[in-house]
């Protein structure tokens, strides 16, 4: 039996199993968590460069950008204004070379890198980051299963033909319920936690749709093949494009 012969669910489970050791490392040490995030952003820079087929000089610039924005704050020796300048320059470069949606995508991804490190840099921040990851994953899983089981009207057929309205609603509710469970960790009342979780569920799916539109524009299905059954890192990161900056803004900035 080959990996490609497995069902979509089995492929996703295999992909998740490969991430378990990383989750354990993040849980036990904040500095290791920040280094893992940094490495992930460098790898995402490589994926993005291949995705948009950038020339070699621009590929190097993209890698430098992603290395900057994903850098652990405890290693940061440069002014944050320089990082913002680099991000802005990269967005302008992409608008000139490729398209406006790609520039926005890089801008959002860059904000995610900074936001992830801001979250980790706080006390017990790695637990907060894992909680957000769990909420986004719950949203994705609920949307996947309910969408396949219930079906119904398509959410955005021109962007992502497999997504359904029923799946989207299930994803939002799953995110709200899990945030409700994590209410104490976030210092929120149960009602506020559920409402904020539903907002996170909406934002996660909007990020997913936005990346799908960018990939459709580039004529590709997956950004890479690093994670079995899940595609590349960018494919798994779409749900965090809007959620991580919002969480960092609400709780830590």
UniProtKB/TrEMBL annotation:
Membrane protein topology class: Multi-pass membrane protein
Biochemical pathway: Phospholipid metabolism; CDP-diacylglycerol biosynthesis; CDP-diacylglycerol from sn-glycerol 3-phosphate: step 3/3; Lipid metabolism
InterPro entries attached to this UniProt entry: PC_trans
Keywords, ordered alphabetically: Cell membrane, Lipid biosynthesis, Lipid metabolism, Membrane, Nucleotidyltransferase, Phospholipid biosynthesis, Phospholipid metabolism, Transferase, Transmembrane, Transmembrane helix
Protein's UniProt keywords contain Transferase: yes
PANTHER family reported in the protein's UniProt record: PHOSPHATIDATE CYTIDYLYLTRANSFERASE
Name of the protein described by the UniProt record: Phosphatidate cytidylyltransferase
Species per Swiss-Prot/TrEMBL record: Puniceispirillum marinum (strain IMCC1322)
